[in-house]
Design brief:
The chain has about 475 residues and is an alpha/beta fold. It contains 17 helices and 17 strands. It has a 7-stranded mixed β-sheet, with helices on both faces. A 5-stranded parallel β-sheet has the order 5-4-3-6-7, with helices on both faces. The N and C termini lie far apart (about 80 Å). The structure holds NADPH dihydro-nicotinamide-adenine-dinucleotide phosphate.
Length: about 475
């Protein structure tokens, strides 16, 4: 079968959304709020249908499709519709009135234009929603490129919104080539969520074209268990962090570092919890990912790792929740993203060693610290190298729209969620009105009084005070006289 002409399709889509964007951004923000609220209600009214579609495409349990995707649509829209208008209000600029009299400045946040959102398959609705809601509210048009692995959920989401707000949002279903063609068609900003490898390519393409982009990439999160952790709750939380969504989470727990003193009590509890979850863990979404995870387990075993629970799957059965220990640090199971229901456990004698273990990764998305004394746990958290650290929990904040989802290192250069995303989705536009009727002291002709004035202004920065202000006024007067001679 011949490939579609992605370039032509991408250009058509971007042009059509661009044509609709002007009128959309010209609407009063309150009108956009009302329309997006109607879109939210239209989606939630068919929430059951959406959850079933997501569960079918991603194989995730219906409960997870509901909690992490359908509910997220409501939460993310609600946050932006409630907070967005204030966050997008113009800001008054600070202009010194003594040297620059009569000037009024303000900064408006202007929509970028057409935002391209490229999304992976593991959360096919929640992840795009983090960009869709703020981008549209700010007055942008948006094109979604869902993953070819789970396109229907993304298409469904866009169709419901488009039915309410019109052609300012669209979707292009296709593989990586479609994503690349969309970047070549020159959107005004790109939000990419996906693997570190593809993210690098997207970054290069955007840099070559001068398109601002945010990258949300993979992770290798570590859970650090301190001596005073509540062992039962911690075992439950870490088991969830390893296994939920079959481990196909950018911030899934893939490494566990435990203090030696509590390991004999803690490790059997964690193993028991993982074994309890086995029946709820579906197979991985793609055969390729399954092969990667199986290879990591196999390789670790060949290098002498001990399997505390799980291990290689039997035949075509799903990969069981797996906990490995004594894995060398250069093994892929320790150093590469797994993206499956497996984790590597290390036991250490000191907190220093736990911190060093957690930081021994090129990724830096999330980490968690588990301990009763939260002051102590926070002190450990502050020394972990990652964009996010949760104390006594892990990764649950992904759909909380006020909280940044952010990584460092190989986990990306950008963020989704939180008011900070407005830096990418809008640009500041400065307006200055000058009501000063006089010429300005720094205009031509230059002369010695201008230098006097500059020196006095510099010394005023150093000393401050009334005396310096009086000297400035007198130097200004002399300079104005010099200009008018
Ligand atoms: P990929 O990087 O393979 O794909 C991500 C998206 O990019 C897909 O839509 C893909 O299309 C598209 N794409 C592929 N090639 C190109 C290209 N050359 N130009 C433009 N777009 C392209 O990631 P996965 O879908 O496999 O998702 C899993 C990864 O995502 C994991 O590494 C995970 O950690 C990460 N992730 C990060 C998150 C975060 O917030 N930090 C959240 C969730 C996941 P197609 O699929 O059709 O090929």
């Amino acid at each position: 079968m011949s490939q579609p002409d992605w370039s032509q399709l991408a250009e058509q889509k971007i042009a059509a959304v661009r044509a609709a964007q002007g009128a959309w951004s010209a609407l009063p923000i309150q009108t956009r709020v009302e329309k997006l609220h109607a879109a939210k209600l239209a989606i939630l009214a068919r929430g059951e249908e959406l959850a079933e579609l997501i569960a079918l495409e991603t194989k995730k349990p219906l409960a997870e499709a509901y909690s992490a995707e359908v509910l997220a649509v409501g939460d993310i829209f609600s946050y932006w519709l409630r907070k967005g208008p204030d966050l997008l209000k113009p800001r008054k600029g600070d202009v010194p009135s003594l040297e620059m009299p009569g000037k009024k400045a303000w900064i408006e946040r202007e929509a970028r234009g057409v935002v391209l959102c490229i999304s992976p398959w593991n959360f096919p609705v929640q992840l795009p929603m983090r960009t869709v809601a703020p981008a549209l509210l700010a007055g942008n048009g948006l094109i979604l490129k869902p993953s070819e692995v789970t396109p229907k959920s993304g298409v469904w989401l866009v169709e419901r919104i488009r039915e309410v707000i019109g052609p300012v949002i669209d979707v292009l279903e296709g593989d990586g080539a479609a994503g690349a063609a969309l970047i070549e068609a020159m959107p005004d900003a790109v939000v990419f969520t996906g693997s570190t490898r593809t993210g690098r390519k997207v970054n290069v393409m955007c840099a070559e074209r001068g398109i601002p982009c945010e990258l949300e990439l993979g992770g290798k999160d570590c859970a650090v268990v301190l001596a005073d952790a509540d062992l039962d709750r911690t075992a439950s939380g870490i088991a969830w962090g390893i296994v939920s969504n079959a481990g196909q989470n950018c911030s899934g727990i893939e490494r566990v570092a435990v203090l030696a003193g509590i390991a004999p009590q803690f490790v059997p509890k964690l193993v028991a919890k993982l074994q309890q979850t086995a029946k709820d863990v579906p197979d991985l979404v793609t055969p390729m990912q399954r092969a990667i995870v199986i290879r990591q387990i196999q390789d670790a075993i060949e290098r002498g790792a001990e399997v505390l629970t799980g291990g290689l799957p039997v035949g075509d059965a799903p990969i069981p929740p797996t906990l490995l220990t004594k894995v060398p640090r250069d093994a892929p199971a320790w150093k590469d993203e797994s993206f499956g229901p497996i984790a590597v456990l290390e036991v250490h004698g000191t907190e220093e060693q736990l911190i060093a273990a957690a930081n021994d990764t090129r990724y830096g998305l999330g980490n968690s610290v588990w301990g009763h004394d939260t002051t102590r746990a926070i002190a450990v958290a502050q020394r972990l190298r990652s964009g996010m650290v949760w104390i006594n929990n892990h990764s649950f904040s992904a759909a909380l729209a006020d909280l940044p989802w952010v990584g460092i290192g190989d986990s990306g250069t950008g963020m989704t969620n939180s008011p900070d995303v407005l830096h990418l989705l809008t640009r500041p536009r400065l307006y200055v009105v000058d009501t000063n009727k006089d010429v300005e002291p720094w205009w031509y002709p230059y002369g010695p009084k201008l230098m006097d004035l500059m020196r006095i202004l510099v010394s005023r920065q150093q000393t401050g005070g009334l005396g310096a202000t009086l000297k400035t006024l007198s130097a200004l007067k002399a300079r104005m006289k010099e200009i008018k001679l």
